[in-house]
Amino acid sequence: MDTADSGSTNTPRAEARRGGPAARRSRTASMADVAHLAGVSSQTVSRVSNGYEGVTEETRGQVLAAMKELGYRPNSAARALKRGEFRTIGVITFNLSTTGNMRTLEAIATSAAQEGYAVTLLPVAVPTQDEVRGAFSRLGELAVDAVIVIMEVHLLDVATLSLPPHVQVVVADSDAGDRYTVVDSDQAGGTRAAVRHLLDLGHRTVWHLAGPEESFAAQRRADAWQAELTGAGRSVPPVVRGDWSAESGYRAGLRIADEEDCTAVFAANDQMALGLLRALRERGRTIPDDVSVIGFDNIPEAGSFMPPLTTVHQDFAEVGRLCVEGVLRRMRHDGVEHGTTLVPTRLVVRDSTAPPPAGR
User: Fold this and answer.
1) Do residues 173 and 151 lie in contact, with contact meaning Cβ atoms separated by under 8 Å?
2) N vs C: which end of the chain shows fewer Cβ within 10 Å?
């Protein structure tokens, strides 16, 4: 046996007995361990952990190096309690399958990160009052500072639903009226622009492939479509409904294709418009020579449809940014009032619209 090794006092095991660096690495490192290794006070370690000023770059570097060596992780929960905030925004949403909700959620997460906030997502399986109340309760347990609700169904306008008064709330894409701070795209304005475009091309009227009845956005678009036709003195065709999916647009399109007097269709979203295009082609209707089609959303793939789709552009990034800005202002009590902020939409004209066939 090597007696020199057995008698060494500098082995990791010996260090552990003395409480040296190896001992500190063998258990969860504490703030005191970091302070000792960096040669500073625990208060200085705390200031570095919390990003406070008043620490020289040299000292900050020493503390960070010590944290790295020891594998020290600041206790975020303790910091949150000390500061009185968790720097986390909760997001409650019903439907994660629709383009609008997903792009709004993406924009919220991006904007929150730019402000130094994380996002905790809580999907609601069924859009009922009890489910929404339960979601708020669960978010309370997850420790969030405020909540953004993406709830396009007619739910938040129900008088019996009361969101927790102590929670700062901003609502996206919902008919929540003046009870909350709401951010939404200009659904009606975009729809009117789409219908006017088709009428200006010479179409006598415009059919509508609408979204589901329970959807606030679908109802706004359907109401604006009808109002625009009525205001122009045109006949209003019966509404044909889908569920936002391309498959539902295809099924509805098969019915619309049988309407020989139909020369123009406004679809409430691009994915239903995609299914509609397929159905019309299968029934021998050429787009746009026989039937013009307009969608809504301007999804990234819209320009690659056959033909490229004329559609209404929604600025989801701006909706998300304004939601985060609004909820942070509410947290800071910075003069935010209830009411709705509308983000402008715009018509993007591509190859799926044209004048009607001669004599139609």
Assistant:
1) yes
2) N
Q: Lay out the sheet containing 310-313: strands in order across.
A: 240-241, 207-210, 264-267, 292-297, 310-313, 346-348
**Over 299-341, what HEC string results?**
CCCHHHCCCCCEEEECCHHHHHHHHHHHHHHHHCCCCCCCEEE
d(CA 59, CA 44): 9
Instruction: Write out pLDDT tens, residues 3-55.
Output: 334 444 444 334 434 445 544 444 578 888 989 999 999 888 877 776 666 78
Beta-bridge mates of residue 123? 93
**3 state DSSP class of 347:** strand
Q: Please classify residue 68 by burial: count the beta carbons closer than 10 Å to its beta carbon, then call 0-12 exposed, 13-18 middle and 19+ buried.
A: exposed
Q: Tell me, rounded to whole angstroms, the distance of Cα 202 from its chain centroid.
A: 38
Q: CB of 120 within 8 A of CB of 139?
A: yes
Question: Cα separation of 257 and 101, whole Å?
Answer: 30
pLDDT digits (tens, 9 = 90+) for 96-150: 777 888 889 999 999 999 998 999 988 887 767 677 777 777 776 677 888 898 8
Residue 52 per-residue DSSP state: -
Q: Taking all residues of the chain, what is their mean pLDDT, rounded to a whole number?
A: 83
Tokens of 243: 């569920």
Q: What DSSP string describes 130-194?
A: HHHHHHHHHHHHT--SEEEEE--BTTTT-TT----TTSEEEEESS--GGGSEEEEE-HHHHHHHH
Q: Which two tokens stand for residue 46?
A: 């705390």
Sign of torsion, CA 279 284 286 289?
negative
133: phi then psi, degrees, rounded to nearest 5:
-60, -45
179, 219 Cβ separation under 8 angstroms: no
**358 Cβ contact partners less than 8 Å away, ≥ 6 residues apart:** none
339 φ/ψ angles, rounded to the nearest 5 degrees:
130, 180
Rounded Cα distance between 315 and 233, Å, is 31
- Backbone φ/ψ region at 29: left (φ over 0), alpha (ψ -120 to 50), beta: beta
